[in-house]
Design a protein that fits this description.
The chain is α/β, with parallel strands linked by helices and 382 residues long. It has eleven helices and 18 strands. The strands form three sheets. Strands 1, 10, 13, 14, 15, 16, 17 and 18 form an eight-stranded mixed β-sheet that branches. Strand 8, helix 9 and strand 9 form a beta-alpha-beta unit. Helix 1 packs across helix 3, helix 6 runs parallel beside helix 7 and helix 10 crosses helix 11. Bound molecules: pyridoxal-5'-phosphate (PLP). The site of pyridoxal-5'-phosphate has 12 residues, from helix 9. It catalyses: L-alanine = D-alanine. It comes from Advenella faeciporci. Belongs to the alanine racemase family. GO terms for molecular function: alanine racemase activity; pyridoxal phosphate binding.
């Protein structure tokens, strides 16, 4: 018998969130057309399913995002798995390929790849011609992680044109990645300007926007090019922002991952007694304490302090004391009817929002989703 802990992954929520992004882009499109008097195509959407679809399961991502125009990820094995599962639309390798031996797989599986480093161009030159795949030339516009300098864009584009003539490379597009689309308003102005300047006069599709940029600056996806956005976190129902107004709920996003576990035990702790490792919580009054079958080995953040919200029998209460490996403890004073065996909603459906839990733990929902442990049994909502 499994332990009394369950994650639920909702495929309808994944599909819903994809539609929310489409609708958001559609509204932005109308806006942009009205303000410029020009007409723009709808941007295409790559659903980002790296990291096991942000912890939701690769296959759930493939199914939930069936209406996406493409899937974007970083692991070639996962890309091949998408093909095996019948995904016949585009697949983008966000970090490209890593060694020469990867290339035949890209060729056989028609996988699009980013090109961010000269070593990758050298490998393409050595690859047998005749089975071209599409590429996105990745430029570094300020993240200073992956990508060519904007000043080198034209030269690298020429390299790719040669490879294209040789039948090694198919269509050539351009991509960049923002470091601070969730930061100060306008933080993307300079990176976006650098990008547009670097690719001016060079034909090809364009991809710049992650979730934050797609939600906050959708007009970036409207220009004379074919545009692709690359949302990840918002498709799983969480917000990339930590402002009070730009919440997942405000955008109409629905949590796709829920986590709950049962009360294993109810303790009566007297005033002055403490709870858990390090005795970090001391009761200021006699308190009913619930012991929940979920700990950091399940993916619940150990850094979640006393006060992190949970929901028991529909009542919002809080964690008290330290999260341990297999258990955590909650304040049951607000829930007098709570008994051993009752479910405690830790995040998602009927629980606090995962963004709230993350914020209490000093992290982001991305990390909580990715950290959901293998040992947690998953129920699928289809
Ligand atoms: C992860 C990733 C994304 C998606 O980012 P979110 O913040 O989850 O929307 C987009 N582009 C690249 C290159 C990425 O690595």
């Amino acid at each position: 018998m499994p332990r009394p802990i369950r994650a639920t992954i909702s495929l309808p929520a994944l599909s819903h969130n994809l539609q929310v992004v489409r609708n958001h882009l559609q509204l932005a499109r109308q806006d942009c057309q009205e303000t410029t008097g020009k007409s723009f195509g709808s941007p295409f959407i790559w659903a980002v399913i790296k990291a096991n679809a942000y912890g939701h399961g690769l296959e759930n991502g493939i199914k939930g995002f069936g209406q996406a125009d493409g899937l974007a990820l970083i692991d070639l094995n996962d890309a091949i798995r998408c093909r095996e599962k019948g995904w016949d639309k585009k697949i983008l390798m966000l970090e490209g390929f890593f060694e020469q031996a990867d290339l035949p797989y890209l060729q056989e599986n028609h996988i699009t790849t980013s090109i961010h480093h000269i070593a990758q161009i050298k490998m393409l030159e050595k690859m047998p011609a005749g089975k071209p795949f599409d590429v996105f030339l990745k430029l570094n516009t300020g993240m200073n992680r992956l990508g060519f300098r904007p000043a080198d864009c034209a030269a690298r584009f020429q390299d790719l044109l040669v490879l294209q003539k040789q039948g090694r490379v198919g269509k050539i597009g351009f991509m960049s990645h923002f470091s601070s689309a969730d930061g100060q308003p306008g933080a993307i102005d300079e990176p976006a300007r650098l990008m547009m300047q670097a690719i001016e006069g060079l034909p090809g599709a364009l991809s710049m926007c992650n979730s934050a940029a797609t939600l906050r600056y959708p007009s970036l996806a409207f220009n004379e090019r074919e545009n692709w956005v690359r949302p990840g976190i918002c498709l799983y129902g969480a917000s990339p922002f930590d402002t009070p107004t730009e919440t997942a709920t405000a955008f109409g996003l629905r949590p796709a991952m829920s986590l709950k576990a049962k009360l294993l035990s109810v303790q009566h702790v007297e005033k002055g007694e403490s709870v858990g490792y390090g005795a970090t919580f001391t009761a200021t009054q006699n308190t009913r304490v619930g012991v929940v079958a979920c700990g950091y080995a399940d993916g619940y953040p150990r850094h979640a302090p006393t006060g992190t919200p949970v929901v028991v029998n529909g009542v919002r209460t809080r964690i008290i004391g330290r999260v341990s490996m297999d258990m955590l403890t909650v304040d049951l004073d607000p829930v007098p009817d709570a008994r051993e065996g009752d479910w405690v909603n830790l995040w998602g459906h009927n629980g606090p929002h995962i963004d709230e839990v993350a914020s209490h733990a000093g992290t982001i929902s991305y990390e909580l989703m990715c950290a959901l442990a293998k040992r947690v049994p998953v129920d699928l909502e289809e």
